[in-house]
Specification:
mainly beta; 51% strand; single chain; 5-stranded mixed beta sheet; Methylamine Dehydrogenase, Chain H
């Protein structure tokens, strides 16, 4: 059940699902982070739809409310955004069907000042990330099936591409895997490797990273192979750096992987499907996974079935046990995020054009099904500052 802004849920109703009174919620928010208000940046799809680019909201973590929507920057197709470790710069993937790009911004409160845009050397640039030291940027080009790396300059802008990797081949599904489709490009926890999820080739490409230059080199083995036809999409490491969680889009699954940092290899130890047994509803595709800072809870989402799942993480081997699941509060959730206090979870619902906000119990990991909804055209990505 979603509650629109015209019929807002009061603070007591929101925190009831968490077992907190309002004053306790305020204390929790400030104790957990030292703050109770943040800026939320929202990356969007500008075609189709009416979005002008990247937007900001004010987030009140005590009330669990978004307010004051503004245009932070007018920019073409900023479907994925990421914050630099210094929290002074933000990078956007420009997911144009041709001539994809990556744009660097300087953050000024709720506004973004463009520094520069560089060519992604591919099309459909759907993802961007930084390395852990804030020296390099990586992008994934979905349409063209490639990735590129860039060096961050002193002013936060980007150099032209340092390394570029173009993939070749196809998967077993002729409709969706007619060629490579890079979907993620992230650095390993120790910052020594770059990992690229390829939906089209059913694998994670693995590279050695020279973080001082952003240059990539071949690694042996060159990839980890997933189930044929599964379509690897999202990858999230556990805070301990030894486990990772992989969402495969096409089979709508969530896998627990063990990461061997010394050899830079993965081993799958668990697979969970993000639909109930016997599901015969609309086509369901897995989309995202996130992990809490304390490493005790994970959350994943799928599209079509439009659900958000909560899991308890086994602290011995990283495997997952479901806590509960709730509707995503809209149609086709593209991205999920925890707020900085981790007392709320948000879903950016692409097709229904809304951000849904739900309460979360930090002690039990359980998600509350009653939430709030905020309209915005084609939201794709959520980043707090």
């Amino acid at each position: 059940m979603m509650v629109g802004m015209a019929n807002t849920m009061n603070r007591r109703q929101f925190v009831a699902g968490l077992g907190f009174a309002p004053l306790a919620a305020q204390a929790w928010a400030k104790q957990a982070t030292g703050r109770s208000e943040w800026t939320l940046f929202v990356g969007t799809q500008t075609t189709p739809g009416t979005s002008k680019g990247i937007y900001t909201y004010r987030w009140d973590a005590v009330k669990g409310e978004l307010s004051g929507r503004e245009v932070a920057a007018e920019v073409d197709m900023p479907t994925f955004i990421t914050l630099a470790p210094n929290k002074r710069h933000l990078y956007a993937a420009n997911e144009r069907p041709q001539n994809g790009g990556v744009t660097a911004f300087r953050i000024h409160g709720t506004k973004l000042e463009k520094i520069n845009e560089v060519a992604a050397l591919g099309s459909g640039t759907c993802y961007v990330s930084t390395d852990h030291a804030g020296r390099d940027v990586f992008c994934a080009n979905y349409n063209s099936g490639s990735m590129s790396s860039f060096r961050i300059k002193a002013d936060g802008g980007l150099t032209e591409a340092v390394s570029h990797e173009q993939y070749h081949g196809h998967g077993v599904n002729p409709d969706r895997q007619e060629g490579p489709h890079a979907h993620r490009a992230i650095s390993s926890p120790d910052n020594r490797h770059v990992l690229v999820n390829d939906l089209g080739l059913d694998c994670i490409h693995i590279y050695n990273l020279d973080a001082a230059t952003a240059k990539l080199s071949a690694h042996v083995p060159a990839k980890w192979e997933s189930t044929p036809g599964s379509g690897p999409r999202a990858l999230q490491f556990h805070p301990n750096g030894r486990w990772a969680y992989l969402v495969c889009e096409m089979e709508s699954s969530l896998s627990t992987l063990h990461w061997n940092a010394a050899e830079a290899t993965f081993k799958r130890v668990q697979k969970i499907f993000l639909t109930p047994k016997g599901y015969n509803g609309p086509v369901s595709t897995g989309c995202d996974v996130i992990v809490t800072r304390d490493g005790r809870w994970a959350y994943a989402a799928n599209r079509g079935y439009n659900r958000v799942y909560g899991y308890r993480i086994n602290q011995t081997d990283g495997t997952l046990a479901e806590v509960n699941d709730i509707p995503s509060g809209g149609d086709i959730p593209r991205f999920i995020a925890l707020d900085p206090t981790e007392r709320f979870i948000m879903a950016a619902n692409q097709v229904s054009s809304n951000i849904a906000v739900f309460p979360r119990n930090p002690r039990t990991g359980e998600l509350g099904a009653k939430g709030k909804s905020y309209p915005i055209s084609r939201p794709q990505c959520l980043v707090f500052v």
